[in-house]
Specification:
There is one protein chain. By secondary structure, this protein is α+β, with helices and mostly antiparallel strands. It contains 6 helices and 6 strands; from the N terminus they run ββαββββααααα. Strand 3 and strand 4 form a beta hairpin. The radius of gyration is 17 Å and the shape is globular.
Length: about 190
């Protein structure tokens, strides 16, 4: 058994759905070594071996695994998040126990889609980015025609977590440099 324990670090309002929560769990053990094997067994994950992150969408939840923590967004409540992390613990331990008979997968299986980006954006449709609406901005960002810094609501203090999540997903999926000069200069 690799993962013996975990604990909730924080429960926060969900950024994508105000009626849901976001839970951050600290893992008692480092699961980094099993992540390529998890990537091999999880069909629709977005894995980044360099940064050791595995992001997946399961039953409407957005889950990101890191070597020593897990974030779960769009959970109904704390008990729902706890059931999900307990399931993940089982999957992590089963994968760890069976890893010698598995081939690790270091690649990315899922391509980032505009809908994935749109779900994280503030969805204000403010047009400050000079695009018709937030979904169109997501498409333009994905196609390299816009930079993330052009979404000014995303850089407001109340959207800090959305911004960090989107930047991490863009990084994890190997998307081109979408930050723009504003972010690089510490906006």
């Amino acid at each position: 058994m690799l993962l013996n324990k975990y604990k909730i670090l924080r429960i926060l309002p969900c950024l994508a759905d105000p009626d849901k929560i976001r839970a951050i769990f600290e893992l008692g053990e480092d699961i980094g070594e099993v992540m390529p094997y998890l990537n091999a067994s999880i069909k629709d994950g977005i894995y980044n071996h360099e940064f050791k992150t595995l992001t997946l969408v399961k039953d409407g939840l957005m889950i990101t695994l890191y070597p020593c923590k897990v974030t779960i967004a769009k959970a109904d409540d704390e008990s729902h998040a706890d059931r999900v992390i307990a399931e993940l613990k089982g999957l992590i331990n089963k994968t760890y126990e069976n890893r010698e008979g598995m081939v690790p997968d270091f690649g990315r299986k899922k391509e980032l889609k505009a809908q994935d980006i749109y779900q994280i954006l503030p969805q204000t449709n403010c047009k400050k980015c000079r695009v018709f609406n937030c979904f169109a901005f997501a498409v333009s960002l994905l196609n390299g025609k816009r930079e993330i810094a052009e979404c000014t609501p995303l850089f407001q203090p109340e959207n800090r977590e959305r911004r960090e999540l989107l930047l991490n997903i863009l990084r994890d999926t190997g998307s081109r440099d979408t930050l723009g000069d504003t972010e690089r200069n510490g906006r």
